[in-house]
Write a structure and sequence with these properties.
This protein is mostly beta strands.
Length: about 120
């Protein structure tokens, strides 16, 4: 069963780590904006992250479209169980994903450090 909806959060993409932006607020950038939704289920020790969409991506060649995807990493560890990747969306600068990723074995104390 999918997690219950919560208010999505927009994060402006930059070369900084996304988790730092979540903690420090959104910074101005020319790398686009990502819209995410996070939901924690304490009775399952699971964190659900929905990648909703990305807007205003730049492309390396002016006027060209790109084939974007989103990589998710839960910090502080980059182990395989904490990495996820969306499907590639072809020829777009404003991809819509609506993909839900489940991260298991996340306790309540860790959620505050992640989100």
């Amino acid at each position: 069963q999918a997690p219950s909806p919560v208010t999505p959060q927009k994060i402006t993409l930059s070369s900084a780590v996304v988790s730092q932006q979540l903690q420090q607020g959104v910074a101005e950038s020319n790398r686009g904006t990502i819209l995410l939704r996070m939901h924690y289920k304490p009775f399952k020790d699971s964190l659900y992250v929905t990648v909703i969409r990305v807007e205003d991506l730049p492309c390396q060649e002016k006027g060209e479209l790109c084939n974007p995807y989103v990589k998710l990493f839960l910090l502080p560890r980059h182990s395989g169980s904490r990495k996820r990747k969306t499907k590639v969306k072809n020829k777009t600068l404003n991809p819509i994903y609506d993909e839900i990723f489940k991260f298991s074995e996340i306790n309540r104390d860790q959620v505050g450090k992640i989100a």
